[in-house]
Amino acid sequence: MKLTTVFLQTCINLGSDQRKTRIANAYFSLFMAVGNVLGFATGSYSGCISAAQELPLSSSSRSVISEDERPEPSHNAEEAFLWELFGTFRYLSWPVWIILIVTALTWIGWFPFLLFDTDWMGREIYKGKPNEGQNYHIGVRMGALGLMLNSIVLGLTSVVLEKLCRKWGSGLVWGTSNVLMSLGLITMLIISLVVKNMHFHNGDLPPYGVVIAALAVFAVLGVPLSVTYSIPYAMVSTRIESLGLGQGLSMGVLNLAIVIPQVLVSLGSGPWDQLFGGGNSPSFAVGAVAAFTSGLVAILALSRTYTPKPRPLV
């Protein structure tokens, strides 16, 4: 993950125009997909993980640093950074605010899926419980297989994403992908409803058709996930570039629009699901509404093309 993040920042520094930034983020999605495929492939197969015993370091081998040699923390630098980060909001233009709003709604849609995807497969598709029988664990492994398929589609989409943006425009591609994400979450709700009305005998597995449908939804959701990893960063960086605020601050502002919704979903999804009898479907329903809303806002409010204004020479 650190390697792909460094790769992303390096590519962004190569150019400030939207096309180059989109290409850089597309490569970021591709490299992330490669790592995810390997990780989820391991998780989908039982009995393939081995552990090596780690030898603790002795006290004599540890490097000891005296109190005088330790660098003092730079509180002023941290305070200055936070002040600059939150002070940036005063200079943001309306198109940047639209991007932040769409980003926040997008992650309200994504985070229930990313948080409960394998649990949904084990609990609602295989009707298992974590501490009872093998159905839940088999479902979790099948969920990991679905995430591997998701990552494969993510990587393939990232290769053609630049061509789609040049043809349709970034705003239309982003909005359409979010509508597709909403349809995917709605399909998961429909599958959950169908399985709920099925009667499994004790220890039986769900029909192959249900499992294939669930895996297909996982795979299709790789398309909008690739867009989510690429286009928002490219759009916000090019629009903030013309304001002269710097790429670092633009990434920090966009990350706030990602982290805050994730915190809200993490805190509220549990009580929200319990309010409707448990399961993951209530959170997926909220995610579907948020994704569809963000898609409409992106299609209607974000222009198809954008040419950044030149910065004034001082």
Automatic annotation (TrEMBL):
Q: Which GO cellular component terms, listed alphabetically, does the Swiss-Prot or TrEMBL entry include?
A: membrane
The domain of life for this entry's organism is Eukaryota
| Entry keyword set | Membrane, Sugar transport, Symport, Transmembrane, Transmembrane helix, Transport
Recorded GO molecular functions are: symporter activity
What is the annotated localization of this protein? Membrane
Membrane topology, as annotated, equals: Multi-pass membrane protein
What pathway does the UniProt record associate with this protein? Glycan biosynthesis; sucrose metabolism
What's the name of the protein? Sucrose transport protein SUC4-like
**Organism in which the protein naturally occurs:** Nelumbo nucifera
